[in-house]
């Protein structure tokens, strides 16, 4: 359970902790998206997969009912875990690269 919100590739964290990344200098207005790599490359696929799982579950659960029941906490947690498991270390690196971070010390 402790690994749920950590990438499988520890090189990413080691690289960031050692300070061997470089970030481009963005000082003008309008660069909020550049400073939010999770919004750029992680949150959307993460949320899309959870939404897909819910939609599939709701379509089956709605049959013969007027209202969709609430999913159990365990089921929602399983969707969150499955969604996170689909996020790869490359997706995380690419999200940071898209925002201007350069991870020279990370090699695959």
Automatic annotation (TrEMBL):
GO terms for molecular function: nucleic acid binding. Residues 34-96 form the DDE-1 domain. This is DDE-1 domain-containing protein. It comes from the Eukaryota. Pfam families: DDE_1 (PF03184). InterPro entries: DDE_SF_endonuclease_dom.
């Amino acid at each position: 359970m402790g690994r749920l919100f950590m990438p499988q590739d520890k090189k990413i964290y080691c690289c960031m902790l050692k300070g061997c990344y470089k970030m481009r200098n963005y000082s003008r207005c309008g660069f909020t998206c550049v400073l939010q790599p999770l919004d750029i490359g992680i949150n959307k696929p993460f949320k899309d997969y959870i939404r897909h799982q819910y939609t599939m579950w709701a379509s089956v659960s709605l049959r013969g009912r007027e209202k969709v029941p609430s999913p159990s906490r365990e089921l929602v947690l399983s969707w969150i875990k499955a969604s996170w498991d689909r996020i790869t270390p490359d997706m995380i690196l690419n999200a940071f690269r898209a925002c201007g971070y350069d991870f020279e010390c990370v090699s695959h």
